């Protein structure tokens, strides 16, 4: 291969090294997908723990002190509470959902299907239990770093 391409995706010298976690190109294994799901869960749990154990009790303390109404001097506490609540319940889960969707698309590519297959009911269960293709496919080179693809050549091998 003169132009270093498999299908329509150009590759650098390394064997399918993922260049960006935020692009849908490439392939990832089941193990990588599960690890990224766990990472996202830990990130959300950290934010939610701060909300539950710091902001919420502080807000509740000022609310109880005022008989169920936040007093004028505690408006800053209420504002901080509302901002962090919005971040905890809407912003962080939305960002993590987009990140996980990108990772799921890469996992679909590993099974040599198009990303639109994620819209099929129960296809996610299939992804968790199915093995990826054992060689290069339409979406990229083999994602296993320890295995070199037989069709992959570097510029040094010309």
Structural key phrases:
single chain, 158 residues, mainly alpha, two-stranded antiparallel sheet, 3 helices, 2 strands
Overview of the molecule:
This protein is an all-alpha fold and 158 residues long. The chain has one domain. Helices cover 50% and strands 3% of the residues. A two-stranded antiparallel ribbon has the order 1-2. α1 (30-65) packs antiparallel against α2 (75-110). The radius of gyration is 23 Å and the shape is rod-shaped. The N and C termini lie close together (9 Å).
β-strand number? 2
What sort of overall outline do the alpha carbons produce when their principal axes are compared? rod-shaped
Structural category is: mainly alpha
Number of helices, counting only DSSP H or I runs of 4 residues or more: 3
Q: Describe the strand arrangement of the main beta sheet, using strand numbers.
A: 1-2
Percent of residues in helices comes to 40-55%
Task: Give the C-alpha Rg.
Answer: 23 Å
Low-pLDDT stretches = 11-15
**How many domain units?**
1
Helix/strand order? EEHHH
Percent range for β-strand residues: under 5%
Termini distance?
Answer: 9 Å
Mean pLDDT: 78
Q: What's the story with the biggest beta sheet?
A: 2 strands, antiparallel
């Amino acid at each position: 291969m003169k132009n270093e391409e498999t299908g329509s995706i150009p590759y650098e010298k390394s064997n399918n090294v993922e260049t960006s976690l935020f692009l849908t190109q490439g392939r990832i294994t089941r193990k990588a997908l599960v690890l990224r799901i766990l990472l996202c869960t830990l990130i959300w749990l950290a934010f939610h723990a701060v909300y539950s154990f710091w902001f919420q009790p502080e807000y509740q303390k000022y609310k109880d002190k005022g008989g169920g109404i936040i007093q004028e001097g505690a408006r800053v506490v209420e504002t901080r509470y509302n901002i962090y609540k919005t971040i905890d319940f809407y912003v962080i889960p939305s960002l993590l959902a987009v990140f996980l969707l990108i990772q799921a698309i890469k996992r679909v590519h590993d099974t040599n299907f198009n990303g639109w297959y994620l819209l099929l009911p129960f296809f996610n269960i299939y992804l968790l239990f199915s093995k990826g293709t054992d060689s290069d496919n339409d979406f990229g080179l083999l994602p296993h770093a320890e295995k070199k693809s037989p069709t992959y050549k570097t510029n040094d091998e010309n």
